[in-house]
Amino acid sequence: MSVPREGRVSPTQFARVAGSPGETPRITGLIRVLWPFLLLAFGAGYLVRAAWPHPPLEMTGIGAGFLLLAGLLAWAVTFGRHRLESFLKGARGEESVARTLSFLPSTYRVYHGVTPADGLLGGTGDYDHVVVGPTGIFLVETKSWSGRIVIRDGRVLYDGEEPDRPPLEQVKNAASRLRKDLREEVHRNLEVQPVLCFAQGYLQDGRSGAAGVVICTAATLVDVLQEPADHPLSQGIQDQAAYYLDRLTGGTKHGTS
């Protein structure tokens, strides 16, 4: 059954979106999982060559080598499966948050998987999400933790423990880097608000804050980004920031993803 024309929702009612959410963790996960297998293939090739036609190694040594490779293969399969699942979980979290962000009003622009101009971001690869709108510029870091999130003494605790890689420092460093890049691009100091968003975990009241970082869940993210700003961003500045981000992601498009 066709939808009546007056009942359709115009895509221009929603935020303009660019980039591919979850692409970086998927690619990174595959690379980190596959490289041990390349080394094992090289080792297997060496042993096969050593066994034929005139083995430079004793057959017992070659047999021991194959046994060692078999053990390493079993380890690589087990370790790789867990590593890949971790990266895929992160990718699914980014995709979930991306769907939420796509429902921002058309006055907002949303960018996913933004790689800095020089391709370097202190080991994180890219910015998960960048949002530009009348309420400001936001850098959103997504975490797919599924447990209980607690903010205590300026720290983020996951199921009562502090993670090895503090997420507050991660998102603050990323926001600082984007702020620096924008300053060099538009020749003015623009505030970039770091936002730490949990795609799955439980956070009391759905939002909090620590060390200058807004902390929220995916369910409250859109409301957080639309809160009235003390100093709203002019359309001209929004366009300048968006022009730079468009170049990094290949442009924007209307609609939801």
Tell me what the structure shows.
The chain is of the alpha/beta class and 257 residues long. The chain has a domain at 12-21 and 90-249. Helix content is 45%, strand content 20%. It has 5 helices and 10 strands. The chain has helices spanning 23-51, 59-101, 167-186, 218-225, 235-249, and strands at residues 16-19, 109-114, 127-133, 136-143, 148-152, 155-158, 192-198, 202-203, 207-210, 213-217. The strands form 2 sheets. Strands 1-2-3-4-7-10-9 form a 7-stranded mixed beta sheet, sandwiched between helices. A 3-stranded mixed beta sheet has the order 6-5-8, with no helix packed on it. A hairpin with a 2-residue loop joins strand 3 (127-133) and strand 4. Helix 1 (23-51) packs antiparallel against helix 2 and helix 2 (59-101) crosses helix 4 (218-225). The chain is globular. Residues 1-11 have low confidence and may be disordered.
Instruction: Strand order, main sheet: write it out.
Output: 1-2-3-4-7-10-9
Ranges where pLDDT stays below 50 over 5 or more residues in a row are: 1-11
State mean pLDDT (0 to 100 scale). Answer: 76
Structural class: alpha/beta
**Main sheet, how many strands, which sense, barrel?**
7 strands, mixed
Helix coverage percent: 40-55%
* Oligomeric state of shown chains: single chain
Can you count the helices?
5
Query: Whole-number radius of gyration?
Result: 23 Å
In terms of DSSP E residues, the strand content is 15-25%
Query: Tally of extended strands?
Result: 10
Q: Sum up the overall morphology in one term.
A: globular
How far apart lie the N and C ends? 23 Å
Succession of helices and strands: EHHEEEEEHEEEEHH
